[in-house]
């Protein structure tokens, strides 16, 4: 998998590239609009991670240019501007996803994975161990048998299936599943209650995955 | 107190003092003049009688028609010794013609006849009743004062009102003025130099204010925007470090704490950016947002998240509240108000949410005593001891309300902190 990271901030570029390489992606970087244009037009990439604000141009223009040239590349926009207008414009211009800075690396990986999965086509199911989830129909199956889950339980499971093996911190999970407005909760017992139910249901259904508590501040999805 | 009122009051006070002095002066001058005239005629009368008496001519009979009268009588040498020989007095005299006592001017002479005998002559003429005069003067002065005052104050009020119109226009503009609205002061064409200057100064002030406001907005926007990337870098570096297998649990806990702080910072930053965008009139697309449904889903989440606080939540839906606004902002508004009610609540407290067709009311228990209503909606206004709050939640709610012409008020009623969002009727 070959990814082009277009980002003008050197630190940001380095971190994204390093984190992607760790996941065994092949990573190319570009720091200006011109460099990005040359690379994106000249080579094939599985996905572009595109910063909108570049020193010598606007990332959205690059999107438009790629579209005009008829190059079908997956693009995830990374922007410091969390504005709906930008999001809509970017998605209209053919971007696959939009991620506002600052973001969690785990989130970037999950989005990237989902974009690449869509690119391969067909396979829309999330799979880990003997558990599969169909995000389009809100269905979960264990070894082919349907598993009934509460809404939050389902959201939590899908969140983890998108990030297998990654440490997810409690607060991040709360904000992802319950919403940003949960940011000031000073006690995360409510997650624990949902987690307990979810674990029990997975275990009872004979799933070969488990959401483990990690170091008292987070959770991790692991295959048994 | 208004300028015209101050003017009228000061004028009446000053006028009353001046008029009082003037009336006293008037009375005494008048009395002086009257006495002078009377004394002259009394002297003539007395001299006429004395001359006759000395010449041995018959004395005139008591005059008919006038009420002047005289007494002539001999007195002893000792009596004459002990008294001044000319005396003027005001006293009541019995008038024989009228058979009653009346106030009179009395002149008394003591003179010596050729034969060495002393005679006393007393001539009197009825005079004006001074008490009556004083009353009359007092009455007319008061009347004059009243009439004068009414006219002068009336004329002045009218003149001032007419000429102060540019000032009033300016004042009412100042009342309405809010920085950032780009409203310039009213252009009143006045010939009065002071008002022209004032209007000019106001215009400059407004322009300068707008400029500063714009600069500040741009600065906040740019600053928070520029901070996003470094924040992301810090956060992501820590996340990468957390994946390191060699870390001890204690080290990880430290890193996670740092991450939380960074997240708080970036939340604050996001809120600031959001504020800027609201103030810049972004979020153009609107829809009729059903607040009842929104409240239901948010309350469920918050109840869940704050279950450990055992807060009793009552939702009273008297009607469906639908407001034409951006959905994202509506959610931000309501979630900030509800979050506020949960976060600043006490264990075992209460929250009461009331929805009507025109208003939304969130009442909650919390620290006893009203909050500072002046500053509660200011940015970074913190209630003490709440480290996790960004201090921007209520400022955001306020900005959203302003954007859609809603009113957000705080009050403290029966031990509850109450926030009310009201639709303002646009007439």
What does this structure look like?
The complex is a heterodimer of chains A (224) and B (427). Chain A is an alpha/beta fold. Chain A has 2 domains: 2-120, Response regulator (Rossmann fold, 3-Layer(aba) Sandwich), CATH 3.40.50.2300; 126-223, Winged helix-like DNA-binding domain superfamily/Winged helix DNA-binding domain (Arc Repressor Mutant, subunit A), CATH 1.10.10.10. Chain A has helices at 10-22, 33-42, 59-68, 84-92, 105-120, 151-161, 170-178, 189-204; strands at residues 2-6, 26-30, 47-51, 53-54, 57-58, 74-79, 97-100, 126-128, 131-134, 139-142, 145-146, 168-169, 209-214, 218-223. A 5-stranded parallel sheet of chain A has the order 2-1-3-6-7, sandwiched between helices. Chain A has a 4-stranded antiparallel sheet with strand order 8-9-10-11, with helices on one face. Chain A is elongated. Chain B has 9 helices and 11 strands. Chain B has a 5-stranded mixed sheet with strand order 6-8-9-11-10, with helices on one face. Chain B has a 4-stranded antiparallel sheet with strand order 1-4-3-2. Chain B has a two-stranded antiparallel ribbon with strand order 5-7. In chain B, helix 1 packs antiparallel against helix 3 and helix 5 packs antiparallel against helix 6. Chains A and B meet through helix 1, helix 7 and helix 8 of A and helix 5, helix 6, helix 7 and helix 8 of B.
